[in-house]
# Entry
Amino acid sequence: MQLAEAFKIAFDIHGNQRDRSGEPYLFHVVRVAMSMKTDEERAVALLHDTVEASATLEAQVDLVRKIRLHFGEVVSKTVLRLTRTEFEPYMDYIRRLSTDKLAVKVKLADLADNMREERLTRLPDVEADQLRAKYGPAYLFLGGDIKIEAYGEEKTAEERERAARESLEQGRKPFPEQCCAECHGPLDGAYLKRTPARDAIVCSKCFSGNMTETPSVRSRD
# Structure
C-alpha cells in the first residue's frame, strides 16, 4: 500500500511534467525507484522530487505533512533532505544530504540517471556539458565512480546492488582538477587562490583579494 500511495503522489505531481530532454519526468523517478532494494528506499525514490516540484509553499507544507502521515518520520525527513531550497547553492545541498545514507543512495541513483548518455545526447551540447559539470562533482562527492553509469555497466540487480554498496562504503573522493576547490562548481577560468593553509584553483566567483590568475588548468585524462 505504501508504494501504491508513493506512486500516486509522484503521478499527481509529475504526471504532466517533462524533463529537459522532453521525456516524461515520471519515468525518471520510476527508474530511480527500480534501482532501490527495499520498499522504504523505493518510496523515497518515488517521492524525492515531489516537494521541490510542488507549485507553492502551502502545497509543499501540505505534502510534507501527508508524507509524514503515510510513510513516517524516516521517509519524510529523507525526502526533505533530498529537497533543495530555492536559494541553496547546489554543492551546499549535496553536502547537507551527504550525512544521510538513505538520501545518499537515492541521490546517487538520481544523479546516475540524470547523467545517462542516452539522455544527454538529446540535449544541446552546451547544456549537456553544463549538466555534466554540475552533476559529476556531486556524484564523486557522494562516493560514486564517475566512470560508471547508473552504478556501472552491471547488468543484473545483484551486480548493481554490489556496486552501489561499494560506493557507499568508500570514503569521499577528491574533486577533479576541473572543479573549483571551494564551491566545487565548474571553473570559468583558472584562478590561483593563495592562503596560509594551501594554494587552490578556484572559479572567478570564489576568487577575491590579492590572487594570481593562472593561464590554464589541466584536466585529468
In short: Strands lie at 191-194, 199-202, 212-213. The longest helix spans residues 57-81. The radius of gyration is 19 Å. Residues 146-154, 171-178, 209-221 have pLDDT under 50 and may be disordered.
